[in-house]
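pasting for ref
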Amino acid sequence: MSRIAAALIDRQTGRPRGVIESRRSSHRARSLLPVTLLLSVGLASLAHAQEPSPSSEATPPIRTEPLNILLILADDSAVDNYGCYGSTYFPTPRLDALARDGIRFTHCYSAPVCTPSRVELMTGREGIRNYVAFGTLDREEVTFGTMLQQAGYATAVAGKWQLHGGPNGSLAADCGFDTHCLWNAPGTKRARYWNPSLLRDGQLLETAPQDYGPDLFTDFLIEFLEKNKERPFFAYYPMALTHAPFRPTPLSAPRTEEEQADKQAAALRHFRDMTAYADRCVGRLVDALEKHGLRERTVVIYTTDNGTDRSLTYPFGNETRKGEKAYPTTGGTHAPLIVNCPGIVPAGQVCDDLVDFSDFLPTLADITQAELPDVPLDGRSFWAQCQGKEGDPRLWIYQYYYPKFAKAAEKHGQGVNRREIVWTQNHDFKLYRDGTLYALSDRDELRPIPNGSDEKADAARKLLQSALDSFPERAAKLRQPDR
């Protein structure tokens, strides 16, 4: 049992930590529990509920040096925008290679929009415990930056910040980062791509019209890892790409006549180019790790903060899909998750275990053997799965969401201003706190499942309702906004 297992009884399985049911789809057959056992396991877990605490049954392979971490979070890009997840429209060769040579998770879920995703990712805590307002990370929260800084890691963040709002918002230094290069930090202006307005270690950079923000962020992180190659480091890259406005990248071809006349066609083409450029930035970082002999000692993690922009419509297989950013649907929350570290993470893995954004902090603690923050946590480590082991998979995930985009709450909003949206889900079903149940196969959530209409759905309803009931009813830190 991992040293970070703080509770004897697991909240979701009702068993001692390390006794699990596997949900893998690659090197072992996927095993579905009988409905009655699944229900009894879930209810037993809640009868023994304690403050959630992450765990992993695995320990990393014996090594003489600590592992570095490069965590990349792209902006506004759903799981179906990547070749390794089935897209033939978006070119992502470097990320596809990382997935092929490492592990790709098929059931990772973010919040539907940036702030709640980032707060949950950085703190290992669900929004019901610590969401304040859009653009705010409460300075009292302990982040993965602070956790790793205290463990002796050099720490850096580059890219989009947007967490300093409100009376108690956070700056990069508040979150444990030794150095930073950020857009949407105090004193910066709106430009994030060409001639960007960036703050580097508290000073505004002088940039020119030919300067491209994503290149400057990537250059900064390459400089950081070169400077710290003799000590363990944590580099966090919350990208500006691929968020609107959709502008040409340095590699974009001139607009066609059709694109000149059709703004939607131009926006989609630029978004496609921006996705390819984000992939290129990842490749540059991986190449820099290789150049400096850091590749086999650096865990590269890639995910995204929410679904694709609502203004975009794009092909996926035989479908045409519309971006669902800000909606609490699968299209708004289903994120890619790729983990790669040669010699540590076996190649060719595909894992369908559930992963929630609260799981990242305990996973980083498991990788580095850092001490977990002394606060109630909701996440659990998925590092064992990355190493090809069983791990400690979830039976469900929980989500709390107060949308800035009011229309997102029209169907299931409750509580403050009828805007709070709360749900739990497993691999097959999703239950909102208002009692509405959907099958995950109903991607657009158009067909609610009535109680008593299906035995499997009824069992899932009971399990997911018990999961909902195990969390607080009220948000602890929500700043009561006007309508």
